[in-house]
Amino acid sequence: MGNSVWKDTWLITIRSVKTTLRNPFSFIPNLMISAFFLLVYEGGLSGISQLPMFEGANYLAFILPVSIVSAAIGGAGGAGQGIVKDIENGFFSRLLLTPASRLAIVLGPIIAGMLQLFIQTLLIIGIAFLLGLEVETGFGGILFVLLIAIGWGLAFAGYSAGVALRTKNAQAAQAGTFIFFPLIFLSTTFVPYELIEAQWLKVAATINPTTYIFESMRTVLIDGWIFWDLMQGVIAIVIACTITITFAAVSAKKAVSRG
């Protein structure tokens, strides 16, 4: 049974990846937007790093997580879009008539979305290095940033898949993903928490899980291996993934029962 699940998941993941590659415009715009964020923010706001609160930190390393998280939100939405397309063209219903694992039917597009995000993140980090990125923790720090990005992408992919299975509508699945973009800006997006002046924005940043994703990435890029600062991002991912993957699993069960 276990081998069957893994085999089915592998086959459906490969199919989802091939489907994405056949339609590059499903992910190229998201990659371009993320790269645009990096270029514009670094070019227009890098002078902020001269403030004493930054302590001479490289603003490029500070703003890089914003570009990566925006890619995670957009890229992970591909999981939901893939499921909706399968529902609309009847492939999802045909899969339900086969012995394929029901878990694999949902996991395949989610894993494909994570792989897409992994490639996007590598490209964004490559652009950052071309712009002069310096990483305090070296290659190990880059690996940690990649793991955080993939974990955050998994959380969004689970949510996207759950919305797609609930609504079976492409527009609803897309809209369900985009509501998370405000989370990027209700956080420590451009300046450290200490420099945020509006009290309401400080409260929003405190309860916003994106803040802890940003801080864990920035810590490993700028400050080094500070255990608790890194673990805050890991904990935020574990909580988010638990909620969204459970949501996707429950939605999948209901979708399968409806046939």
TrEMBL record:
<keyword id="KW-0472">Membrane</keyword>
<dbReference type="InterPro" id="IPR013525">
    <property type="entry name" value="ABC2_TM"/>
</dbReference>
<keyword id="KW-0812">Transmembrane</keyword>
<protein>
    <recommendedName>
        <fullName>Transport permease protein</fullName>
    </recommendedName>
</protein>
<dbReference type="InterPro" id="IPR051784">
    <property type="entry name" value="Nod_factor_ABC_transporter"/>
</dbReference>
<feature type="transmembrane region" description="Helical">
    <location>
        <begin position="61"/>
        <end position="84"/>
    </location>
</feature>
<keyword id="KW-0813">Transport</keyword>
<feature type="transmembrane region" description="Helical">
    <location>
        <begin position="225"/>
        <end position="250"/>
    </location>
</feature>
<dbReference type="InterPro" id="IPR047817">
    <property type="entry name" value="ABC2_TM_bact-type"/>
</dbReference>
<comment type="similarity">
    <text>Belongs to the ABC-2 integral membrane protein family.</text>
</comment>
<dbReference type="GO" id="GO:0043190">
    <property type="term" value="C:ATP-binding cassette (ABC) transporter complex"/>
</dbReference>
<keyword id="KW-1003">Cell membrane</keyword>
<feature type="domain" description="ABC transmembrane type-2">
    <location>
        <begin position="25"/>
        <end position="255"/>
    </location>
</feature>
<feature type="transmembrane region" description="Helical">
    <location>
        <begin position="172"/>
        <end position="193"/>
    </location>
</feature>
<feature type="transmembrane region" description="Helical">
    <location>
        <begin position="139"/>
        <end position="160"/>
    </location>
</feature>
<dbReference type="Pfam" id="PF01061">
    <property type="entry name" value="ABC2_membrane"/>
</dbReference>
<dbReference type="InterPro" id="IPR000412">
    <property type="entry name" value="ABC_2_transport"/>
</dbReference>
<keyword id="KW-1133">Transmembrane helix</keyword>
<feature type="transmembrane region" description="Helical">
    <location>
        <begin position="21"/>
        <end position="41"/>
    </location>
</feature>
<feature type="transmembrane region" description="Helical">
    <location>
        <begin position="105"/>
        <end position="133"/>
    </location>
</feature>
<dbReference type="GO" id="GO:0140359">
    <property type="term" value="F:ABC-type transporter activity"/>
</dbReference>
